[in-house]
Amino acid sequence: MRTKEPFDDIFIAKYKQNFNGLFGLETGNSKTNNFWLAYLHVSHKSKHSASLLSNWFFLFSFSRNISTAFLLLFLLTQAMIHLESGSIEILPILSVVFFLGFIIMLMRFNYLYKNYFTKYLFRSFVYVNSCAYNDNLDSIPENKVNANLVNEPERSKNS
Questions:
Q1: 104 vs 71: CA distance, rounded Å
Q2: In this predicted model, what pLDDT tens digit does every residue of 44-94 receive, in sequence order?
């Protein structure tokens, strides 16, 4: 899936074109507006993409929160080691385990945030603005959707 790779030049140009066209702003001067305006636009235009963004948000938030909990447990065990002067033998082992948990979950948070949440947002922004995207398939009667998607029997009758 190559999620760690940066966006290619064609995609970046398409993003800049869509961003400038919609908001009248240059991406280089927009700072955090690049993220927030794209996020608000995708959330407004596509319920499906917004729900997937929420899912990635919850996953990276969970990783961040677990990482913070491990860090606090690590600091607590370190304080107990220094205050108790080693009377509880398992504390150094727990301290190492909590520190490793902190590092692992911090890396997971960073990975989910950079390679999934943020990149999915920018991909969704380009997708929603670059094609004849319609998130309201529920509002179209089913027979019209099927007629538009499958026209093979009609072609075979005419030939």
A1: 11
A2: 999 999 999 999 899 999 999 999 999 999 999 998 888 876 567 788 899
Give the separation between CA 101 and CA 42, rounded to whole angstroms: 34
Pair 53, 121: CB distance under 8 Å: yes
d(CA 43, CA 49): 7
Q: How far apart are CA 61 and CA 113, in angstroms?
A: 9
Res 157: pLDDT: 46
**Each residue's pLDDT tens digit, 127-144:** 998 775 555 544 444 444
What CA–CA distance (Å, rounded) separates 91 from 94?
Answer: 5
CB atoms within 10 A of CB 70: 20
Are 43 and 62 a contacting pair, CB within 8 Å?
no
